[in-house]
């Protein structure tokens, strides 16, 4: 008989290893147990048990994070929300959707589509990510340029605090100016303040038909002029950038041939509104103008939904294709206008200090977010490579500070960047964060060691 009864739990080695980590592989998975509540009330029971027995709880969603935010390496109890996946309400008037926190984001998107609606926040791991985890990390993804982050779509939350209180935050209201909006403290909090058990998400009308441009830049200095021109001439929903190395790894992993002939240093997938292909002529005019100006070296435009998906794959498959190299990732952001200057400075910095490392670049140029992926050489152990990454990071983050950017644009802090918070946040901000943590979780039950 388990002390967690009647809540389902597992303690076998395979389950502990599976649920005790996220996509990072730099820390061992050593939880005491994994528990599977099915309701807010059972989460409250777990918090009460944790307070009584001195347990620490690590909230767990789809564990697709890249910062160690869902790692349990010190005997914590993993609280998996995967059994809490009920759709509570679908409101087509508002419109909005209320669901338990374990509902996969891909399922949320499917349910919205079935109702003739649309949930626009999307990223490569959306199908396996869970709603609560996406809120706790304020997930962004590939269409932030048009639709913003997860934060912009959260209308209400049910949260269990570290004292076992249940908070009903905002209750799905559009207007509610009654003091501090605690809902927004929970969004992006990485599970250190409470466990999200239900959420009400806004939905919108489906976008018009989209087409995709795949373009090759003549050089780094061409990226911002192209972005500026295309954004002014088309209704963009995405402008996703990647380098030549990304192409090589995706081609190697998929066996597919890249659709452009030339070898450009950088590429982008550009998605834009194109109902009935009415914007194709305008897109081609813009492409030709930018090519004549020397900014674009090659490109192609989708002629069908199938072709659009094929072009998107060259961006979306990058993370999976480089995962065997256990990349040391840095998820950075600066103001959009400073992206090329920052990327150039960062590339020179890495080449100078670690010439033996291969770096793959991709990101969301439209919102200033760059993903720097340093690949582990085959003859390096994971431990030694992680140590080298930690040695490199202060130089990278100091450059980020000089550019007044963020050391974590969308992946969060977790374990990976908790020592680096000061590069983006002031001492006063960090102290206030600690005080807020103490107010919601006075005994430090939730996600110990993360963020701070």
Automatic annotation (TrEMBL):
Cofactor: FAD
Protein name as it appears in the record: FAD-binding oxidoreductase
The entry's keywords: FAD, Flavoprotein, Oxidoreductase
One of the Pfam families matching this protein, by short name: FAD-oxidase_C
Species whose genome carries this gene: Wenzhouxiangella sediminis
UniProt family annotation: Belongs to the FAD-binding oxidoreductase/transferase type 4 family.
PANTHER family named in the record: D-2-HYDROXYGLUTARATE DEHYDROGENASE, MITOCHONDRIAL
TM region positions: none
InterPro entries on file: FAD-bd_oxidored_4_C, FAD-bd_PCMH, FAD-bd_PCMH-like_sf, FAD-bd_PCMH_sub2, FAD-linked_Oxase-like_C, FAD-oxidored/transferase_4, Oxid_FAD_bind_N, Vanillyl_alc_oxidase_C-sub2
GO BP annotation list: respiratory electron transport chain
Domain FAD-binding PCMH-type residues, every copy: 27-206
Entry GO MF terms: FAD binding; oxidoreductase activity
């Amino acid at each position: 008989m388990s002390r967690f009864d009647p809540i389902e739990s597992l303690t076998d080695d395979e389950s502990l290893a599976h649920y005790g980590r996220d996509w990072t592989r730099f820390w061992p998975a050593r939880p005491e147990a994994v528990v599977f509540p099915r309701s807010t009330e059972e989460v409250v029971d777990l918090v009460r048990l944790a307070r009584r027995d001195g347990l620490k709880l690590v909230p767990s969603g789809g564990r697709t994070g890249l910062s160690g935010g869902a790692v349990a390496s010190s005997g914590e109890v993993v609280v998996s929300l995967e059994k809490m996946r009920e759709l509570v309400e679908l409101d087509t008037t508002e419109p909005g959707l209320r669901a338990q926190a374990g509902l996969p984001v891909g399922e949320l998107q499917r349910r919205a589509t079935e109702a003739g609606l649309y949930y626009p926040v999307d990223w490569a791991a959306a199908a396996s990510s869970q709603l609560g985890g996406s809120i706790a990390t304020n997930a962004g993804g590939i269409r932030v340029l048009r639709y913003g982050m997860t934060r912009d779509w959260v209308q209400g939350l049910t949260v269990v605090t570290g004292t076992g209180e249940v908070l009903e935050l905002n209750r799905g209201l559009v207007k509610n100016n009654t003091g501090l909006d605690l809902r927004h403290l929970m969004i992006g909090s990485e599970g250190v303040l409470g466990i999200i058990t239900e959420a009400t998400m806004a939905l919108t009308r489906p976008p018009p038909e989209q087409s995709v441009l795949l373009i090759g830049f003549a050089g780094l200095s061409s990226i911002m002029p192209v972005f500026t021109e295309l954004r002014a001439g088309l209704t963009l929903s995405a402008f996703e950038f990647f380098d030549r190395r990304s192409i090589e790894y995706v081609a190697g992993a998929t066996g597919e041939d890249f659709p452009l002939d030339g070898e450009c240093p950088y590429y982008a997938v550009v998605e834009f509104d194109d109902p009935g292909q009415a914007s194709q002529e305008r897109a081609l005019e813009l492409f030709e103008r930018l090519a004549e100006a020397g900014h674009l070296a090659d490109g192609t435009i989708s002629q069908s939904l199938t072709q659009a998906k094929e072009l998107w794959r060259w961006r979306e498959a990058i993370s999976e294709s480089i995962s065997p190299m256990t990349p040391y990732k840095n998820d950075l952001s600066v103001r959009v206008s400073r992206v090329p200057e920052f990327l150039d400075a960062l590339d020179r910095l890495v080449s100078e200090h670690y010439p033996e490392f291969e770096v793959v670049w991709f990101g969301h140029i439209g919102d200033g977010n760059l993903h720097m992926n340093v690949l582990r050489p085959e003859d390096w152990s994971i431990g030694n490579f992680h140590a080298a990454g930690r040695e490199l990071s202060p130089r990278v983050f100091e450059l980020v500070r000089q550019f007044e950017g963020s050391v974590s644009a969308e992946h969060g802090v977790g374990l990976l960047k908790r020592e680096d918070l000061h590069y983006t946040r002031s001492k006063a901000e960090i102290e206030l964060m600690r005080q807020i943590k103490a107010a919601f979780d006075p005994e430090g039950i939730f996600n110990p060691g993360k963020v701070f």
